[in-house]
Amino acid sequence: MNTADTILQALEAGGRSGLAALVAGGRNLAGDFDNFVLPHLGDIAAAITAIVAKRQAGIFTDATAKDLIASEEDAISTLVETMESLSAYEAQVVVNAIVDAMNQAVNAILGFALLA
Amino acid sequence: MTLARLAPLLLATLAACQHAQWVSPYSADLQSRAADMLADLTAWEGQMRAAAGTPAADPRNPPVQAKLAAWRGEIEAMAAIELSIDPGLTSCDALAGRISGQLRTSFPILATNDTAPRLNRCETLPDIFARMQKRVADGSPPASGIGFDLIQQCQLPIPDGQFAAALQAGASKPVAFDPGVAIRCAALFEPLPGQAHGPATQALATELEAIIYREGREQAATHG
Fold first, then answer.
1. Cβ-count burial B113-145 (b if 16+ within 10 Å, e if not)
2. pTM for this entry
3. Among candidates B119, B135, B213 on the partner chain, residue whose Cβ is nearest the Cβ of A82
4. Is B140 an 8 Å CB contact of chain A?
5. B39 CB-contact burial (10 Å; exposed 0-12 / middle 13-18 / buried 19+)
6. Cα(B106)–Cα(B8) distance, integer angstroms
7. Selected residue with higher pLDDT from A29 and A45
8. B25-68 pLDDT per residue, tens
9. All structural domains of chain A with their residue ranges
């Protein structure tokens, strides 16, 4: 599996695991998630893939890579918050699940803990 | 009436609100401004990719600083429009925070009880304009945002005086000091194949697209 697929799968799995309890509770969250969140998670995964590749090649410094990835974390929060049926707490749970999955994938690919 | 006697009523209200949300009216102006800024961002990204390694892409170049300043102004204008079309949302979020905090202080069990009712946020995308402002920051501390990334990746390794002379000689002329700057700078703006934006602008583009999506959804709800 290439880096882009690894990161995209991590983001999607994080999102779905964050939403799993709500879906199991009978909430229908498919609309905004499938229409807007999922396609844009693909864009974010592509950006993170580029950041990781350029950090590995020494083109980005650690500081640049961290700032760019932090901006993608903000974008993940924005994406999740477009889902109007989530409460603030539920949105935070989903964001945390996606960001945790992303951090683990990025650190595993780089081979060191760039992200806490 | 004491808070203890009010608590059941408040909790019932909170429970009823758990899945409800106020939705601000559709704003064609907000949607249009977000679309215009997205187009401007995309065009600027292409210019920066082409100018990488020259004084034109250096964050000390006045047009680069002016572009970030213009976006800060545009984001502030969008935030003001959002506030003006439904000023109740801001006070609603503040009130929700106060009620929730007061209840959890008064009834500590709520702070640790996952099943306790929680207030929804009053509007989708509650922090979006603050996030966007952070992204178009000029690079001054705290070190983050496009301005910071430009300093890290696109600033030519020459002092200010020499930079001013290079700018006068021609902003788009490459400066033959470190060819690596062109590669490092262009990397901020190069998208992966099939993608529209590079790493420096991807998050901001997503945030603008989220505003356009939300306003489109509200337009459908208004006219549906």
1. eeebbbbbbbbbbbebbebbebbbbbbeeeebb
2. 0.83
3. B213
4. no
5. exposed
6. 13
7. A45
8. 788 999 999 999 999 999 999 999 999 999 999 999 999 999 99
9. 3-110
